[in-house]
Amino acid sequence: MFYDHQQIEKKWQKYWEENQTYKTSNNTDKPKFYVLDMFPYPSGAGLHVGHPLGYIASDIYARYKRHQGFNVLHPVGYDSFGLPAEQYAIQTGQHPAITTEQNINRYEEQLKKIGFSFDWSREVRTSDASYYKWTQWIFIQLYHSWYNKNTDKAEAIDTLIKHFEEKGTEGLNANQNDALSFTAEEWMNASDVDKEDILLNYRLSYRAETTVNWCPALGTVLANDEVKDGKSERGGFPVFQKKMMQWSMRISAYSERLLQGLTQLDWPQPLKDAQEYWIGKSQGAQVKFQVEGHDEIVEVFTTRPDTIFGATFMVLAPENPLVETITTAAQKAAVDTYIEETSKKTERDRMADVKNVSGAFTGSYAVNPFSNEKMPIYISDYVLMGYGTGAVMAVPAHDERDHRFAKKFNLEIKKVVETEEDIQEKSFDSKDSVCVNSDFLNGLHYNEAKSKIISEIENKGIGHGTTNYRQRDAIFSRQRYWGEPIPIYYKEGMPYTLPVSALPLELPEVEKYLPTEDGDPPLGNAKVFAWDEVNQKVVSTELIDDQTIFPIELSTMPGWAGSSWYFLRYMDSQNDGEFCAKDLSDYWGQVDLYIGGSEHATGHLLYSRFWNMFLKDRGWISHDEPFQKLINQGMILGMSAYVYRIDGTNQYVSKNLAANYQTQQIHVDVSLLKGTSDELDTEAFKTWRPDYANAEFILEDGKYITGREVEKMSKSKYNVVNPDDICEEYGADGLRLYEMFLGPLEQSKPWNTQGLSGVYGFLKKFWNLYFNGDVFEVSEEEPTKAEYKILHTLIKKVVFDIENFSFNTSVSSFMIAVNELQKIKCNKRNILEPLAVIISPYAPHICEELWSLLGHGASIEFERFPALNEEYLVEDEIEYPVSVNGKMKFKISLSAQLSAKEVEDLVISNEKMQQILEGKTPKKIIVVPHRIVNIVI
User: Are 628 and 590 in contact, with CB atoms under 8 Å apart?
Assistant: First the structure.
């Protein structure tokens, strides 16, 4: 029977949509299972075949759990705020909302063609006001919260105010920007503005001067992961370090909990390691050094206070405020030049560049509090303002970077840890040796020395032992248009939150999407974007009088804001009264399976854990962590094609002749190749782009053969394969099976369209099991044990594979089972019905059609997954190979129930064996039960 995949797939996609087959109920006594894909950003290019890999895997698992009787939440939505739509708006004037809507419609059309079992009724878009109303609400709650270190959680700001009213800062143990000290009386006598200023020091979302990655060309601040090699990832524009007033999120308050929480998560170890490194916990001491001739002190954090006697110079971050104060007139020009150069590097670039040594001398000296020796103070880009105190005591004998710096600037290198190595030539960093040249620390090992020096530091009143974290607070504002407006207005220079009743604060219309002439963010172009405090509404900016009508914050939220909590909104996506009802977040709890790319390790995955912990602290949800199990899918790589242009000409030489010429490799669109070969369609190439219209070709055997290379699938490399084309030719079920068949989910693997024919051939074989010629024919006859064995062998393998995410080996097992059933011409209902259920998570369309033809009125989706019966896998007979003196002589079939002694007796008495023995007695008989018999004569 002809397998018409196009007709079948359209039919069932229409059925699923009309019947809302995958709509998930919140009211059920079924156990829950929550399967989620990382939020897609709807780009203008649409999907290529690499994108659905993770979605197919999660869809198989979601369908499998439904077959097991779970209430499965498998939603979809769009992370629809983003820079690409804004850049397009700047270039064309088209509102980003229009571009985004078009892109989403394209994505949705493609996703539905692949047959995903998403609950489309719960779809969310971060750029919809009904969604970002709650993103703004969470921001307001963060603003009105502080972190109480005593209770180790976030609390309402009212409890902090009550503490100030009763005790001032006495006994306060809070996460803060600066250590403040005041009495209850001083708090009560402070003005409202001063009180607001003090509270900003503690709020979990706060405004402060911060060093940021500023990209003038894009007119915005970029996150570290949006900058590569000093340029913006989007567009490749120069990025500079700049100080600006910015909104930040106090994620640093959660550093320890974020670190400890990793131990409870079933995540890939490299991803956990990335978060652990990013958080960067280290234990040591905070020490103050006096600057000679100044009232200033330099405070450092060091993990090796035991080496303080070897500290011979100090290095400050170029952006450290002390630099301006302590730099001498003679050194000012050199210092200013160096600071300017450093501003062109991001913090990430500075951390990564471990080989280049650079710096400038400030002209000032600090005094070592233990050796009393003068220590020249330098600035260098290897010290970061955001980590520790923005200053380091340099111990060149025992730190590789300090050693390189000392060698470059000819500074003293003093050994304080015993070693035979020449520390003038190479640093020696070890905790296994003892202290030398260190006065009262001499002869002590690391732990003793560290403990003793911290006591002395505390006795001298110049510091204390402490724990530090590399992780810094997350910058939360962007100077962009296309993002969530921050629900803040300014009164007497201080920020105040809009009332919750005013949410959502919607994005205003603007005439242009660039910053204003005064350098304000694009929202500065809005004509209706001021807050009327009396009438509680947004009004014209012309009415701002700073009496009752005030300016609104002009920055928008970063790209990660909406994706930091979307997994909660899916639980209750239509709720207008709260972000998610508590009973529903209690029911759905954690995401049980989360699939997405590893590139989000220190962005989205860290921020969403932070927001989740905060919402738990304040009592709105009950679970600590958002994602219990996480899998990073690999990439599907493209097979790029190249032509070879002879330098300085418009001639193109075929691949195997290119070595004879000076050529340049140029990517060409893989659609210009003939069929699935490497041969270029030269006429199509000439019409591809105007500059190739007059191309001339040097051929081999009358053909132009392109170069091929496996690399990342990307529009810019012209190696993208559109899933729509694959669905058209091979079907969505073919695409789904092939993507799983390519290899283990976590690995990257190259795409090869030719490979689809094998999977498509399997689907046709599977289809025809149910037909006799063109007639659907299924027998009611009871299957044989051999037939049941094929089925239950498959059940056992597929259950194991799905639960271990080995989807590729399942597809192989389907092929083996179908081949075996075809060989024995099995068409029995008791085999073919469960077979359809087993294969349906992978190939749902064909299985729905077969299920319907088998006489079922309801969808196959909720049919129980076939139960394994191990009895069918027990062998009745074993075919034993019999070897004599190491050579296999014959085979004998014996009952599987026989003991080793019984097998031995039957083999020896066998007529063939008797002929071989010729009356001799065997020296040795070895029976490996159910495997082999070895005889030595």
Answer: yes
